[in-house]
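Task card 7
Instruction: Convert sequence to structure tokens.
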Amino acid sequence: VQLVESGGGLVQAGGSLRLSCEASGFTFKDYAIGWFRQAPGKEREGVSCHSDSHVGLYYAESVKGRFTISRDNAKNTVYLQMNSLKPQDTDVYYCAAVDGYYCTGYMDYWGKGTLVTVSS
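Output:
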């Protein structure tokens, strides 16, 4: 099983990035895929979650209206489009997968993360 994030980088405040999470080794369409973020010394925060049926679609209040999650089952990939980025969005972003419809803190599989840095 692998989850590989990409698309992180350095961007100015107000800019955009699109993160990708490519999955392999499990039946992708049966899993909810979530994005989480965490900085050293901070608690992990759930950012967004997407299941194939949209039942468990979730956005954290801090990103609503700015971030959009989507998935392409044909490519086993989930995307996180991040617009109007703020310095407080700076974090390591992780994708994770769980069998079912809802993301929780207890996901089945985790990626290694991609760093997003937003400069002011």
